[in-house]
């Protein structure tokens, strides 16, 4: 009888210990706005800046964010099919995409975090420094008479490809004269090795190249762009993004569809906050709000006291 009671007691104690441990483990792994693990889908066109944001965020909080960089079309597909609840795109969601989340009773939280640009690049030895968007549209539509020999894109499914196709009134790339690879770095490398080609990349890749891509960016140069109805050629600089004069500027958004208070909300607040905006400013892109600077004024008596103490 005593043995049975002892076994029952041990069994109860073992079950209690397991349940308690599971509860503690659940609490330890619970995701909050500054703690836990999550995955973010990122448009590969501005991968470098988001890598920087994640690195600083993780250094400040007990959080681990896995970044998956893909083309825009792949991201949207995964996003709508519950691959993750957070995406970073150069556009907001359209009506059909919003309807998809409405059926799940989720209201997307969309946060604008900055402004990027689509840049045209050419080989450093090229004599050309200017490009007209009308020439790009004509070339994409197979019209002769432009100086363009070939256009090089990162990926047929990228946001950059979508932008230029829409500008040209096309659904897909033309059969001739257009080349595509996988990444922006591939485009920069190809243009740096082939004179006469014009690459189309996210500006962030030029300001923040990878260690292997740095040698390629040094062998290309950006072209100033004239809008279709414009009269001036504008370079893709941070100042021109701020003044909204560059014709191929595009806003960046964090779209959070987690449906709860998680790392998506915390990361969006971080990137749109003071530190995150400083990172964007330093990257060469343009932040939503320019971080302020603290200026300390000292009077003569303060300076005198400091000098006496030295």
TrEMBL record:
<dbReference type="InterPro" id="IPR050811">
    <property type="entry name" value="Phosphate_ABC_transporter"/>
</dbReference>
<dbReference type="InterPro" id="IPR024370">
    <property type="entry name" value="PBP_domain"/>
</dbReference>
<dbReference type="Pfam" id="PF12849">
    <property type="entry name" value="PBP_like_2"/>
</dbReference>
<keyword id="KW-0732">Signal</keyword>
<protein>
    <submittedName>
        <fullName>Phosphate ABC transporter substrate-binding protein</fullName>
    </submittedName>
</protein>
<feature type="domain" description="PBP">
    <location>
        <begin position="36"/>
        <end position="271"/>
    </location>
</feature>
């Amino acid at each position: 009888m005593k043995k049975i009671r002892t076994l029952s007691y041990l069994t109860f104690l073992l079950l209690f210990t397991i349940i308690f441990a599971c509860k503690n483990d659940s609490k330890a792994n619970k995701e909050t706005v500054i703690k836990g693990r999550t995955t973010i889908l990122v448009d590969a066109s501005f991968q470098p800046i988001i890598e920087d944001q994640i690195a600083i965020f993780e250094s400040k909080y007990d959080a681990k964010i896995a970044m998956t960089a893909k083309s825009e079309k792949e991201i949207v597909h995964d996003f709508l099919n519950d691959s993750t609840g957070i995406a970073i795109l150069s556009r907001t969601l359209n009506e059909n995409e919003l309807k998809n989340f409405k059926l799940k009773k989720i209201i997307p939280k969309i946060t604008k975090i900055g402004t990027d640009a689509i840049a045209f690049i050419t080989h450093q030895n090229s004599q050309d420094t200017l490009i007209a968007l009308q020439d790009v549209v004509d070339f994409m539509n197979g019209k002769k008479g432009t100086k363009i020999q070939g256009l090089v894109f990162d990926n047929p499914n990228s946001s950059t490809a979508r932008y230029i196709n829409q500008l040209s009134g096309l659904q897909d790339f033309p059969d001739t004269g257009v080349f595509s690879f996988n990444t922006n770095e591939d485009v920069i490398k190809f243009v740096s090795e082939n004179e006469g080609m014009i690459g189309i990349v996210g500006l962030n890749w030029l300001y923040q190249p990878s260690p292997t891509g740095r040698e390629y960016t040094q062998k290309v140069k950006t072209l100033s762009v004239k809008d279709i109805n414009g009269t001036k050629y504008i370079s893709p600089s941070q100042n021109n993004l701020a003044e909204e004069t560059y014709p191929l500027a595009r806003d960046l958004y964090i779209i959070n569809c987690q449906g709860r208070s998680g790392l998506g909300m915390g990361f969006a607040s971080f990137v749109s906050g003071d530190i995150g905006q400083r990172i964007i400013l330093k990257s060469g892109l343009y932040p939503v709000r320019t971080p302020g600077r603290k200026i300390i004024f000292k009077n003569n008596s303060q300076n005198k006291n400091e000098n006496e103490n030295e």
